[in-house]
Design goal:
Blueprint lengths: L7 E9 L19 E5 L2 E9 H4 L1 H7 L3 H19 L5 E2 L5 E2 L2 H10 L1 H11 L2 E10 L23 H37 L2 E4 L5 H4 L5 E10 L3 H14 L3 E9 L14
Antiparallel strand pairs: 1-3, 1-4, 1-5, 2-3, 6-8, 6-9, 7-8
Length: 268
C-alpha cells in the first residue's frame, strides 16, 4: 500500500450509515491507496485519495477508453465495496465518482442524504444477482456462397433460381432461430423477475467485453431478499432445461449496484 503524496482528488466507493467500518483497516483501494471514512449528515462515504494526474476529469476521460486500465480500476473499486457490504447495507457509488476534496464529498452526502437513506432502506438485507443469457450456438457461417461453377460453354439455366431458393430457406431458418432465442430470453426474464423484488435490464454486452463468442441476448439484474437465493438458483436450473437454445450464466451475490438510486457523480 502506498500513500498519495502528489496532488490528489477523492475517489468515493460507497455510502453507509456506519461511522467507520472495521474492514477499512489495511484495505487497499484504487491506485493502491488506503481507504478512509468521510462523514456528514449522519452518513459515511468510503473514500480514498488518488493522484489528480490520473484521475481528474481530463485524465478520466482518457483512461476510461483504456480497457486494461478500466478493468484494473473496476476490480479495485468493487473489492472495496464488497468488503464494506460484508458489514452491512451500502449504496455503491458509480465508477469514477470523484470530488476535489473531502469537503466536496461531505457536501454531496449532505445534499443527497434523503435519497441515500432511502436507497439504503430499499436494499437492506438484499443482494443483487446477475443473469446473462447467450444463444447456445454461434451464428452458422454462410457456406452457400452460390451455385457451383460450370465448365466454359455449359448453360447454367435455372442455377440462379435454385441458389436464390436455397438462400431464402437458409435466411428463413436463421430468422426462426433468432426469434426462438429472443422469445426464450423474454420468458426467462419474466420468470426470474417474478421471483425478485426488483429487476433491471441492461444492454447486452458485445463479445469482446463479455469474453464470449456467443451472442448475449439477456443481461439482467435481480434484487433478492437474503434467503431467496436457493429458490432463484433452482429456477435458473429449471429454465436452462426448458430452453436448450439458450445458455444461462448466473453471477452473484453482489452489492446492489443496479438498485441504488445514486446522485450524479461529482467532478474535480
Amino acid at each position: 500500500m502506498r500513500a498519495v503524496t502528489e496532488p490528489s482528488v477523492v475517489w468515493t466507493y460507497a455510502v453507509t450509515e456506519r461511522d467507520r467500518p472495521a474492514c477499512l483497516d489495511g484495505l487497499e483501494g484504487v491506485a493502491g491507496g488506503p481507504v478512509r471514512a468521510v462523514t456528514a449528515a449522519g452518513l459515511t462515504a468510503i473514500a480514498g485519495d488518488v493522484p489528480a494526474a490520473d484521475f481528474d476529469a481530463a485524465a478520466l476521460r482518457r483512461n476510461l477508453e483504456d480497457l486494461g486500465w478500466l478493468e484494473t480500476t473496476a476490480r479495485a473499486h468493487h473489492r472495496v465495496i464488497e468488503a464494506v457490504a460484508g458489514e452491512g447495507p451500502v449504496v455503491p457509488m458509480r465508477l469514477a465518482t470523484v470530488y476535489r476534496d473531502d469537503a466536496g464529498a461531505a457536501a454531496a452526502l449532505a445534499e443527497h442524504a434523503g435519497d441515500l437513506r432511502a436507497a439504503i432502506a430499499r436494499t437492506r438485507a438484499r443482494k443483487e444477482w446477475g443473469i446473462k443469457a447467450y444463444a447456445a450456438r454461434p451464428a452458422p457461417p454462410d457456406r452457400d456462397a452460390g451455385p457451383a461453377p460450370r465448365p466454359p460453354g455449359r448453360a447454367a439455366a435455372g442455377s440462379g433460381a435454385a441458389y436464390l431458393a436455397r438462400r431464402r430457406q437458409q435466411l428463413s431458418a436463421q430468422e426462426r432461430a433468432r426469434h426462438d432465442v429472443v422469445t426464450s430470453a423474454e420468458l426467462i426474464h419474466a420468470r426470474l423477475a417474478g421471483l425478485a423484488e426488483q429487476s433491471r435490464l441492461h444492454p447486452p454486452q458485445p463479445p469482446q467485453l463479455a469474453g464470449q463468442r456467443l451472442q448475449m441476448i439477456l443481461n439482467a439484474a435481480y434484487l433478492l431478499a437474503d434467503g431467496q437465493d436457493g429458490d432463484f438458483a433452482a429456477a435458473v436450473t429449471e429454465l436452462a432445461g426448458q430452453h436448450p437454445a439458450v445458455r444461462i450464466e448466473i453471477t452473484g451475490p453482489w452489492p446492489p449496484y443496479s438498485f441504488a438510486a445514486l446522485p450524479e457523480a461529482g467532478q474535480p
